[in-house]
Amino acid sequence: MRHSTFKALSSLSAVRNLANFVQIVEVGPRDGLQNEKTIVPTSVKLKLIEMLSDCGLSKIEVTSFVSPKWIPQMSDQKEVMQGITNKPGISYSVLTPNLKGLEGALASGANEVAIFAAASETFSEKNINATIDKSLDKFRDVCKHASTNNIQIRGYVSCVLGCPYEGHILPKAVIKVSEQLLSMGCYEVSLGDTIGIGTPGSVDTLLREITQFIPADKLAMHCHDTYGQALANIMVAIMYGIRTLDSSVAGLGGCPYAKGASGNVSTEDLVYMLHGSGYETGVNLKKLIEAGNYISEFLQRQNGSKVSKANSKL
Amino acid sequence: MRHSTFKALSSLSAVRNLANFVQIVEVGPRDGLQNEKTIVPTSVKLKLIEMLSDCGLSKIEVTSFVSPKWIPQMSDQKEVMQGITNKPGISYSVLTPNLKGLEGALASGANEVAIFAAASETFSEKNINATIDKSLDKFRDVCKHASTNNIQIRGYVSCVLGCPYEGHILPKAVIKVSEQLLSMGCYEVSLGDTIGIGTPGSVDTLLREITQFIPADKLAMHCHDTYGQALANIMVAIMYGIRTLDSSVAGLGGCPYAKGASGNVSTEDLVYMLHGSGYETGVNLKKLIEAGNYISEFLQRQNGSKVSKANSKL
Asked: Could you give the percent of chain B with pLDDT greater than 70?
């Protein structure tokens, strides 16, 4: 037993030293605010995006080009895009569920878009009103059009570790959707534990299988902290060589209909873990905490970052 | 890079399969309640201990034989010990800072005691009013007397990853105190990240050094979740072969003087992680959640377990 343990750890240290830059994708303004009850005014969103831009974050997902009928929280997408002071070196990406969304994003000057597929058939049908196959057909058109316009496309796969309707999701379902997203032109696929149900063990199982087909540098992890497992799960992803991680300032998000439900893993706690473990992110943690406090105060919401809470009492 | 990553993970899987029982030491009634503002009536403590005993937990730290002048929360230690319905197979341990405490514990029928040293000189002086060396002298007497009475002794070392006064603590300080506790008769040393400041990287550094001198089966990890790092840190401990973990139901504890400060890692979230990752604990998670809800409701305190919160909305 001890022999195996030592082997694991010396390898862990090796991984740490070999590739120590981690790319954080800040999804708070989109995935976070989209799932908050309060509809946040454009000016507050712009202030938040500006604060996040000042932290050293280089990828920020800022809004979603979806129908306001479905997601009223994102109905000011054009105003948000117009209001952003683009900083050099920062990609401000947007979610585009279809061609119409992509056209809106292009007209607003977006330089990166994201599409959102599911590994669960039922979730796909309930969430985006299409079977997985039909959704992929639609995304293929989006990708073609984006590619013609030299726009980078990121792919999301939701429910990779479990689905609220179907329960367990097989790794092969995740692999199939991920491969298709990559083949249609996505530069990377972000694996979403949408309901935060995964554990280090289930992440291990998924990544052991998927990395046999897709290299780790084409994958990102997108963890929600619903069951408190996000950082532990992310450590496993790092051990598999994944170096792109999605997170949300102040842990914004969660289910708007459930009191106390956790949202995305908080960027502050993630950055604290990474910096403390010898990884670089380029992010200024102090400024990030200020951004998280700003939006939490506006929302009159408990800050979802434990690092922020710990700092507030220092 | 990918080669190293794969090596790490195949070893991780090997560790998982080889030694899959994890001993949980439930410290909620002692370390948890001792750090809550509210002084909990004996009857509530006894009900909590009974509920915890019904969960399948086999080690529960129930009280502390310290002066009520210092820790009024534990002033009913005799009544607690008298009131417990001992269940076979469960060790109900108590903290004993000195010979007087040990005598009280013996008179109350305790079958296991714990002593509490620090890896930080300043913390030792401020917390237990003695230099590390003087505290160890005192503990040596406690150990001798306990051994004469066939009482098992567990050792704690606090501040192993950082100290509120001294900041960084060197692994060699932790090793020195741990070795002395073992040599005076402790069957195990629990390494406490008292202020929850550690990260997977700093846990890795500490354990890589300490396991060169002390085998992993003589070590336990005691993590606080102040910075949200506890479960990720524990995953690293597991990779080092450590199979004894301290935790607190509902994440009880925290600093009584700081609003929103996190306590011990919650037993519910730990058990969820372990079971989901293929480890056995013998604990019934559903019953554990009930115990955590019971004490949280009594304390009118937000339940510190995310698993409990996620379950409450199902």
From this structure: 90
Q: Report the CATH number at residue B84.
A: 3.20.20.70
B9 vs A204, A225, A277: nearest CB = A204
Quick check: A261 and B2 CB within 8 A? no
Determine, yes or no, domain membership for B287. yes
Q: Which residues of A are annotated as catalytic?
A: 255
Q: Which residues contact A288 (CB under 8 A, 6 or more apart)?
A: A52, A55, A57, A249, A267, A268, A271
- CA of A114 to nearest chain B CA: how many angstroms apart? 26
Give the separation between CA B121 and CA A290, rounded to whole angstroms.
34
* Number of compact structural domains in chain A: 1
Which residues of chain B have a CB within 8 Å of the CB of A258?
313
- pLDDT < 70 stretches in chain B: 1-19, 255-261, 313-314
pLDDT in tens, A233-256: 999 999 999 999 999 999 998 754
Q: Which member of B204, B232, B310 has the closest CB to residue A12? A: B204
Read off the pLDDT of each residue in A206-212 and give the average, rounded to a whole number: 97
pLDDT at A217 over 70: yes
Find the domain containing A145 and state its range.
3-7+19-312
Structure tokens at A189: 């696929």
Cβ atoms of A28 and A249 within 8 Å: the answer is yes
The answer to whether A225 touches A219, Cβ cutoff 8 Å, is no
- Are B96 and B113 within 8 A, CB to CB? yes
Interface touch B261/A207, C-beta < 8 Å: no
Contact flag B276-A8 (C-beta cutoff 8 Å): no
Residue B14 lies in a domain: no
Nearest residue of A to residue B267 by CA position?
A: A228
Residues of chain A with pLDDT > 70, as a percent, come to 90
Q: Would residue B269 count as lying in a domain? A: yes
- Whether A238 maps to a domain, the answer reads yes
Asked if A306 lies within 8 A of B278 by C-beta distance, the reply is no
